[in-house]
Amino acid sequence: MMSPKVLPCALLLGLSAAPSWGQTLPSVVNSEIGNLVETYKGIHAHPELSHFEEHTSALLADELRKVGFTVTEHIGKYPDGSQAYGVIAVMENGPGPKLLLRTDMDALPIVEETGASYASHIKAKNLAGQEVGVMHACGHDIHITNMIGTARALSALKKQWHGTVMIVGQPSEELVDGAKAMLADNLYQRFGTPDMVVGLHDTNTRAAGTIGIVSGPAMAGVTSIDVVLHGIGGHGARPQEGKDPVVMAAEFIVQLQTIVSRSENPRDPAVVTVGNIHGGTKRNIIPDEVTLGLTTRAFSDTAMKIIIDGVKRIAAGVAVAAGVPAEMAPTVTILPNESAPPTYNDPALSAKVKSALVKAIGPQNVFDEEPIMASEDFGTFGLEGHKIPTVLFWLGAVEPQKFAAAAAAGKLTPGLHTARFQPDPELTLRTGVTAMTQVAISLLHK
Ligand SMILES: [Zn+2]
Ligand SMILES: [Zn+2]
Question: Around ion ligand 2, which residues have CB less than 5 A away?
C-alpha cells in the first residue's frame, strides 16, 4: 500500500493508475456500512408481501437514482393483468458487456419471533384477502440493501470498470411469478438483453464473512401441480353405492412414491411431495372428491417430464382401477405461475465469479457448495435453455460465534422461512457488498 505521503504526489503528476484517494472498494464499503445497516433495519421493519412491494421498490429506485442510475419503476405484468412493482436501473459506462445484477424484494407471511429491536410488527392482507403477519424471513431485505451498497460502490469506482450495469429489483420471488412478470413486460426488449446475470442469496448454512458457490446445476426447478380425484359420494355405511375418492387418494399418494424410486434415473435427482390434501366433511359421509396439492423438483427437463407424465398416469390409473366412469377422470392441473426453471450456474461464468470472490474476501472464505432441491425463479432471467449465462451464489449470514456454537452441537441456527431467521447485518452486508462489487468489476474489467 502506498503511504499517504507518496500518494498525493502521484496524483498531482497524474501517474497513479490506482483509484483516487479514498476510492478503493474497502474504503467505500467502510464509509457506507453504517448507513447500509440502518437502511437494512428500516427495510426489515417494514416488509411487504409478494405482489405488494410498493414502498420497498420505491425505496430501492430512489437509492439507485441517487447514485446516478437511470431508473424505471412498475415493470412487470402478472397473468391477471395487474401491474408488478419491478425496478430496472441502468448505468452505462462506456463500451463493454451488459451485466444484470438481480435482487428480489418480497417478504413472507410469517409472524416474526426474533426479538430484534428492528423486528417487524407488520400485518397485511395477502392475495386471498386474509390478514397475516409479514416478515423478511428469507433475507430479501439483505439482498436489497446489498444491492444499494453495490450500486454506491460501482458508482464511486466507475473508473475501474466499463460496460453497462443493469440492476433488477424483482418482485414476488416467493410466488416464483415475479421474474416471469418482468420478462412478460418486455424487460429485455425495452432495456437490452444482458450478456450475463448474477445474483446472490443469503443462507444460514454459512457464517457471515463467507460465501459458497456451485458450478453447474445449483437449485432445482419446481413444477406445482393440483390434482382433483373425482368419486361418487354417499353414506359412509353404504360404500358399495359410490366410488370413494379418499381410498383413491390413499392409493394415489403411495403410487406417487414410485415415480422417483422406479421411473427416474437415480443419477438425476427429483422430488415429489404432496403438501396438502383436502376431502370430506364428516366421518360418515363419502365425499365426491379429494384435492391434492403437489410440489415437484428436478434439475433436468427429462426428469421433470417423467414426474409430470407419472402424476397424470397414476391419477388416471387409480381412477380406472376404482371403476370411476371415464367422464369423471381425475383433473390434473399444472400451475405455470407457481413453477420455475432450475438455477443453472454456467460453469465458465462460475469460475470467473469464484475467482472474483476469492479476490474480494480471500480463498479461506470461499467454499464450493453442493446443489440443493429448493427452487428460485432467478433462472428465468437466463431465458429458456440457459441462453444467457447465470450465476447465483450463497452469502453466509449467521453471526460467526453463533454459527460456531450451533455447529459444535451438530446444528444450524434457524433457517430461511422460519420466524427466527436473523442475519448478522453488518458482517453479512460488508461481505456481500465487497463480493458483489468485486464480481461486477472483474466481469466488466477494463
Ligand atoms: Zn424464500
Ligand atoms: Zn429468498
Answer: 138
- Which pTM value belongs to this model? 0.90
What's the gap in Å between 174 CA and the centre of ligand 2?
A: 7
Q: Which ligand is nearest to the CA of 202?
A: 2
- Give residue 137 CA to ligand 1 midpoint distance, Å: 7
pLDDT for 198 beyond 60 = yes
Maximum distance among all Cα pairs of the chain, rounded to whole angstroms: 98
| Amino acid code (one letter) for 108 | L
Residue 197 has pLDDT above 50, yes or no: yes
Phi and psi dihedrals of 6, rounded to 5?
A: -80, -40
Q: Which residues contact 166 (CB under 8 A, 6 or more apart)?
A: 88, 89, 90, 98, 99, 100, 101, 191, 192, 194
C-alpha grid cell, residue 298? 428436478
Looking at all shown ligands, the one closest to residue 105's CA atom is: 2
pLDDT of residue 13: 37
| Residue 164 to residue 276: CA distance in whole angstroms | 45
In percent, the amount of the chain with pLDDT more than 70 equals: 95
Question: Among 428, 432, 429, 418, which Cα is nearest to 136's?
Answer: 418
Specify whether the CB–CB gap between 164 and 92 falls below 8 A. yes
Query: What is the CA(199)–ligand 1 centre distance, in A?
Result: 14
Q: Which ligand is nearest to the CA of 102?
A: 2
Q: What is the pLDDT of residues 361-410, one digit of tens each?
A: 999 999 999 999 999 999 999 998 889 999 999 999 999 999 999 999 99
- CA gap 172, 131 in Å, rounded: 18
Query: Per residue in 63-106, pLDDT tens?
Result: 999 999 999 999 999 999 999 999 999 999 999 999 999 999 99
Which amino acid appears at position 82 of this protein?
A: S
CA of 303 to the centre of ligand 2 (A): 24
Say if residues 390 and 107 touch (Cβ distance below 8 Å).
no
